[in-house]
Amino acid sequence: VSTQSTGEERVLRCKLAALYRLTAHFEWDHLIYSHITARVPGKEEHFLVNPYGLQYCEVTASSLIKIDLQGNIVDAGSTVLPVNKAGFKLNSALHSAGKNVVYHTHSHAGTAVSERDEKDSETGEISEKILELFGRVLMFTLQLLRTLYSRSQYHST
After folding, report:
1. How confident is the model at residue 109 (pLDDT cuts 50, 70, 90)?
2. Is the pLDDT of residue 138 over 60?
3. Which helix (H) or strand (E) holds 46?
4. Which residue of 24, 92, 99, 136 shows the fewest CB atoms closer than 10 Å?
5. pLDDT above 90 for 90
6. Is 87 helix (H, G, I), strand (E, B) or coil?
7. Neighbour count for residue 33 (Cβ, 10 Å)
8. Beta partners for 66?
């Protein structure tokens, strides 16, 4: 962990590194192209982000990089790898709006579901991301979930 870290920041670094590893474990990551960022406690507008080039399973508390709201490195941690500034743009907007943690991934399932739209069912067009998950992902509409819940043993009548 960085020698410049406060106690609160050290705890945050450990928790964020664990979240990166859990995300990798459940295969919700996509190589090096996603990121989870967290606001560092304190007066400064600083955030922790993964180094660009490390896979989620390789992220450690000490390898997390502390950056400012523009994506400039404040503390490089134990790495010489850069920050993906373009990738941080979305997160910085959400952090500017007051969010403390931004979890942005490109999982295969999430990408496939997000690429599905009404024209798929009308025209028969199917994305290759959806084909990767054929027979492995089940999607429900909110109405169907409500119907199933209303018929379940957990719903009190």
Report:
1. low
2. no
3. strand 46-49
4. 136
5. no
6. helix
7. 12
8. 48, 75
C-alpha triplet 67, 70, 74: angle, nearest 5° = 25
Cβ atoms of 99 and 45 within 8 Å: the answer is no
Residue 25, token pair as written in the block: 């474990």
Q: Which two tokens stand for residue 73?
A: 């490195």
CA 88 to CA 67: how far, in whole Å? 10
Residue with structure tokens 């192209």? 33
- Tokens found for residue 153: 């043993």
- pLDDT single digits (tens) 2-39: 446 679 999 999 999 999 999 888 888 877 777 899 99
Beta bridge partners of 37: 102
Q: Which helix (H) or strand (E) holds 47?
A: strand 46-49
- Distance (Å, whole) CA 89 – CA 94: 9
- Quote the CA–CA distance of 81 and 85 in Å, as a whole number: 12
Do residues 51 and 17 lie in contact, with contact meaning Cβ atoms separated by under 8 Å?
no
Least confident of 9-13, 96-100, 146-150: 146-150
